[in-house]
Amino acid sequence: MPTIAYLEPLPRPTKSPKCDQTFVSRIGGPQNGTFSAPLLHNHKNHSRQCLYTFLAGPGQRVEVVFKTFNLRGNPPDGSAVGELPSCVHEYMDIYSEVQSSEPAELINSPFGGRYCGTIPPRRRISMYRAIAISFFTNKNVTTPDLFEGTYRFINASEYEIGIPIAGSPCSYTITPSLSINKTGVLISPTYPGESNQRVRLEFRDFDLFFGGPHCPFDYVKVYDGPDNSSALVGTYCGQQRNLVLYSSESSLFVHFYTLPRTANTQNRGFKGIYEFSESFVKLDFIRENDGIHIRGSECDQKILSKKESTGYVLSPNYPYPYIPKTVCRYFIYGMQDAQHLERVRLEFTAFNIPKVEHKDRSESNCTDGYLKIYLKGQETADAYDKFDYELCGNETQRVVSDGPRLAMVFSSGELQGRGFKGKYTFETEYKIPGTAAPDGSCSFTYVSASKKRGELNSPRYPSNYPSDTNCSYLFLAETNEQVTIVFDHFKIKADGNPNVTAGAYGSINCFEDWLEMYVVYRDNNDRFLGRYCGMTAPGPVESPRGAVGLRITLHTDQENVASGFKARYFFETAKSEIGDCGGNFSNEDSGIITSPNYPAGYKAPGRGMASMACNWIMTARPGYKLSIHFEHFSLEGDPANRGCSAAVLRLWVNVDSDQPPLELCGEKPPIEQWHYISTGQTARISFTTSDKTVGAQDSGPGPPSIGLLCESTYHFQCEVGYCISDKLRCDGVKNCGPGDDSITKAPAEDHGVLIITTLLVVSFLICLLCTLYHSRRKRRHQLRQLGLHRNPHYDSQTSATGLSSSRRHLQSGGASIAGSLHGINSGNLIIPPAPLPPTSVPPQPPHICISGSSLDLTPGAGYPGIMINDGLDDLELDDDDDDDDIQPDIFINDVRFDEESLQHVQQLENV
Fold first, then answer.
1. What residues contact residue 688 under an 8 Å CB cut-off, 6+ apart?
2. According to the UniProt entry, which residue ranges have a biased composition of type Polar residues (predicted)?
3. Is residue 236 within 8 Å of 163, Cβ to Cβ?
4. Do the Cβ atoms of 50 and 102 come closer than 8 Å?
5. In 723-779, which ranges are continuous DSSP H helix?
6. Three-state DSSP class for 78?
7. pLDDT score recorded for residue 540
8. Is 143 exposed, middle or buried (0-12, 13-18, 19+ CB in 10 A)?
């Protein structure tokens, strides 16, 4: 132990009475008691020095504890622990390592500290059998309440932990012999320290038998407190280097254990030094800010998330200057488990660590003190040399960890500074690329001006997304741009049985977890596109021209999770309203659209393009609706198992409503009839392929019309109750819809009339031909030119504007969809959910469909007229003269034929 060389012999007052006091342990005498300051009257201002001596008996030690302490004077920093210059007018010196009770021997004893003011000496345990306290004053009056304390004589055996080593006051040899316990307790010679001190224990050499990482054989255990019931700091064995431990409060308990051995061991054991001091970092700055002191360290702390909690980290002693030459580590850890994944956001509100300017710019300016920040979990591998930030001076920084861990190392140098104050925030780490919302919510924005293409995914993909989460993805295109989104992986938890034809989407199937898509317009209105769950991936989608972009939302409930989704986005130049192909049709009776290149397979988009889209917009005449029937449909995809991620056909049966479109892919079974009726005057079909399209046959719409009874003569009444244009009866398409063959047969009540009329016409033709061949008489009457014979079932306006009875193809750029579209007269009638055949049908003339042409037999005033109608070409034989001797006139498309025009007659025979 070091000695203090500047001590002088205690002066002895000659004129004043003695104030010394002695407390001795005697057999049968008191083993404890109290002491206080002397009552002194010193009118001549002479200095007085009183000596208090506490002497224990054999096998005992002395314990002294101060209860009150209020000596006059205000010591400078450090003087309370024995540094000079110390207190001047009044002070107390303590000697706890006194080997002799003689006052003269104090000069040879180590000095234990000088105290004044209100800072009391710590609790003291004598090194040997005695403690001496010297009280000095030069004040006029001293009263007993100036200081008060208690003393106690205690058993010294607990401090005798082995065989004493000669020449050392506190060294012992511990051997595992039969006469000594195999376990023991190691404590400091004057344990414990006082309440405001901490203990530092440094092992200079440590070499115990290593039996494994958990030290099951020989070990040293260190407890943060007075005994082994205190919190365990650590268990150590094997070889330890640079092992330095600190107590959290005023005591450490060290327990050394070794197993009995039959052979000599080569392990050296351990050697350590200890220190009691008030100069170690006080831990208030940790406890007061929800931190947890890491036991065994001087000032290391960990801060654990309480789920999106927030708080502050401070430098030691903040807001006052920090202690020089101190190293403190901070470990700020967010939550990381199956349901939570957090990251740490740190922002400094105050920062002051002196900076050292260097002429060499390559050298760090933070060579005295610094704060190093680690954002990637480097501390888990002890990679403290690979920091992300090194801060000093007055700079502030805002940082976000890459994962759930953020660590800092604060090192104070010779220069003092005020330190730092930083605010930490634990926020959920979604692992989603994109611009995150500043409030830490699961909201991400993708702006074309920042990045033209990229990826997005569900939280934590490819791991399962967390439960009870709502996320939003907003895609904002520039003017004259559109955004395309293509899904590459999709698995959202779903219950229920998805509709195989329509895909697993909609509120009926997706009521637990789901993904929704919207079109975003400039007036801040959103158009709902669909809700998806299960394995049914949304088809590729393009924002329409004039829209701002697209928005995706993900909702998860509190039960069960799945792997989520991964998708790509592309910002490209906006296409026209009909896209890459398609058309805009209105006021038509019917039409057929097919996929590009049909009946061959459609192709993927051109090189460098994210998608290809064909949009057909169909508008019926006022009072009409649209019947759409898919006659053939073969599109890559599987709604039940993987959805329509490569190619999709979307059908809006009412473009003016908020209802989402039907989303179709896969192959239509031959026995199924895909037939849809628009709920308004306009319908829209969009066929979109992505850059991962393989190519297949696609197809599209077909028939009929709505109305319970046909109200005009240019409509045809279908059995299911639809009214369609009369022109559509013989175009080769089932225009009345699936299962309705009424357009390919005549009504049952007309069969008899049709047969009789046909026989009469055939007989008449035979007679006519024979008469023309044999008589060779010239015609007696001027042939009268007749106008075109019009079918009474059409009015002039309808015939002029409607489609002909031949099939008419709607094509645009070589692209269409195989199926048929028809205008339906809806009038003001309510559309029944399943229309029934009409109870009565207006009388109609006999009508025969022959290979796409029609033969119309209409009775005239005298003889039946014959009209062969193929498009607008009419052949009419009319015998309406009053003269029975005159042969019937023959006209074909208003051209007169005489007896010499036999070739034309032969044509007539063939017909």
1. 539, 540, 541, 542, 611, 612, 613, 614, 647, 648, 649, 650
2. 794-805
3. no
4. no
5. 751-775
6. coil
7. 94
8. exposed
Q: How far apart are CA 391 and CA 899, in angstroms?
A: 115
Rounded to a whole number of angstroms, the distance between the first and last alpha carbons of the chain is 136
Distance of CA 189 to the CA centre of its chain: 58
List the beta bridge partners of residue 634.
667
β-bridge mates for residue 173, sequence order:
163
Task: Give the H/E segment covering residue 625.
Answer: strand 624-630
- Burial letters for 483-497: b for 16+ Cβ neighbours within 10 Å, e otherwise? bbbbbebbbbbbeee
Three-class DSSP category at 201: strand
Rounded alpha-carbon distances, angstroms, from residue 185 to 123, 157, 182, 256, 268? 21, 12, 11, 6, 18
Residue 365 is which amino acid?
A: N
What is the rounded CA–CA span in Å between residue 578 and residue 581? 6
Backbone angles phi, psi at 770, to 5 degrees: -65, -45
Neighbouring C-alpha atoms within 13 Å toward the C-beta of 655: 17
Which structural domains are found in the chain, ordered by start? 21-155 (2.60.120.290), 163-277 (2.60.120.290), 294-428 (2.60.120.290), 435-573 (2.60.120.290), 705-741 (no CATH)
Rounded Cα–Cα distance for residues 704 and 722 (Å): 7
Angle (CA) 596 602 604, round 5°: 115
Q: Which two tokens stand for residue 29?
A: 């005498």
Cα dihedral 729, 730, 733, 738 sign = positive
Task: For residue 371, list its beta bridge partners.
Answer: 391, 410
In single-letter form, the type of residue at position 529 comes to: L
Rounded CA gap, 298 and 13, in Å? 46
Proportion of the chain above pLDDT 70, given as a percent: 70
Q: Which is it for the CA torsion 636, 642, 647, 650, positive or negative? A: positive
CB atoms near residue 92 (< 10 Å): 24
Model confidence at 488: pLDDT above 60? yes
3-state SS, residue 824: strand
